[in-house]
Each structure stands twice: as C-alpha cells, then as structure tokens.
Write a structure and sequence with these properties.
By secondary structure, this protein is mainly α. The protein has one domain (about 5-145). The chain is about 80% helix and about 0% strand. It contains 5 helices and no strands. Helix 1 (about 5-35) packs antiparallel against helix 2, helix 1 (about 5-35) packs antiparallel against helix 5 (about 125-145) and helix 3 runs antiparallel to helix 5. It comes from Pelagicoccus enzymogenes.
C-alpha cells in the first residue's frame, strides 16, 4: 500500500479533530463544571495548560490539514465562499464556523483569561460551551462532504 497524500491528510485531519473536540467536550461537560462547583481556582491553570499543550496544537493541525483538503476539493479560492456551488457551500460553512470559533477563542484568551482570578472560573463557561458547539458543527459539516447532507 503506497503512501497516499489525500488519505494521510484525512487521517491527520480526523485525529487532530478528535483530540480537539474530545478535549472541549471533556472541558465543558466535566472539568469546568467541577471546578466551578468546587470553587477550585487552581483548576484554571491546569485547564489553561491542557488547552495550550494539547488543544492549540490539535486545533492548528485540524485547520492546516482542513485548508489543504479544502484546496484539494476546490482549487479555485474564489469559489470557497460560493454558496451556489455544493463544495463551496461546505468549505464556506467551514470557514464561517471557523471564523466564529477563532473570534470566541481570541476573546477568551486575551479578554477573559487575564480577568479569571477576579471573575472566577465560571466566567469561562459560555465561551467553552459555544466553542464546543461550533466544533461539533464543524464535524457535522465535515462529515457532510462524504455523506452529502448539505449538497
Ligand atoms: C475545529 C475545526 C474542524 C473540525 C472539528 C473538523 C472536522 C472534520 C471531520 C470530522 C471531517 C470528516 C472527515 C471524513 O469524512 O473523513 C472533516 C472533513 C473535512 N474538513 Fe474539517 N474540520 C475542521 C476544520 C476544517 C477547516 C478549517 C477546513 C477548511 C476549509 C476543513 C475542511 C474539511 C474538508 C475539505 C473535509 C472533507 C474531507 C474529505 O472527506 O475529503 N475542516 N472535517
């Protein structure tokens, strides 16, 4: 079996997406609510370490492989937001969801993180929940390339 670039990109995209989405579900459904319940301020530093050592590399790899996969499906960048083209619709939806996710991520990292000691760890809950929902929608749109739901 020869090395296949498309197949390797899919595997990398899937593995990094699994790590990213798995981490977020664990954060929003378990680690964060537990820290809020127990008023465990130190949990923030453990969560931040997990986010930067595991979450960020996984997100970076998902985005990088996703962009290359998008290019392989649609080499014309002008069509990436063309919603009348089924492939452009899927790539465009991915890019819109990604922009919203990155916007929330920047707000979380640069506005909320420095204020967490004052506001309490509960201040992160809405951002974590929304980022998790956006990531699950990215999985749904991603699966749709193969299944054809949004064509
Ligand atoms: C957190 C962000 C993302 C997650 C969780 C995610 C998740 C997924 C998943 C689960 C699949 C299904 C793979 C398969 O059917 O084998 C997929 C496919 C795909 N994703 Fe993403 N994705 C993300 C970001 C992106 C970005 C930014 C792009 C760039 C536009 C992108 C482009 C694609 C493409 C083109 C496919 C179809 C691959 C194929 O079946 O040929 N993804 N994604």
């Amino acid at each position: 079996m020869g090395l296949n670039i498309y197949g390797s990109l899919i595997v990398l995209h899937l593995v990094s997406a699994c790590v990213w989405v798995g981490l977020l579900v664990a954060l929003s459904c378990s680690l964060l609510p537990q820290a809020v319940r127990e008023r465990d301020g130190a949990a923030f530093y453990r969560i931040e370490a997990l986010y930067s050592t595991v979450g960020m590399p996984a997100l970076f790899s998902t985005i990088a492989t996703g962009l290359v996969l998008g290019y392989l499906h649609l080499p014309d960048f002008g069509a990436w937001l063309d919603f009348s083209n089924p492939m452009g619709r899927l790539v465009g939806l991915k890019l819109i969801l990604l922009a919203a996710l990155l916007g929330l991520g920047v707000d979380l990292r640069f506005r909320l993180f420095p204020k967490v000691e004052k506001l309490g760890i509960g201040a992160l809950r809405w951002h974590a929940a929304l980022i998790t929902v956006l990531s699950l929608l990215l999985v749904f749109v991603g699966a749709s390339f193969r299944i054809g739901w949004l064509y």
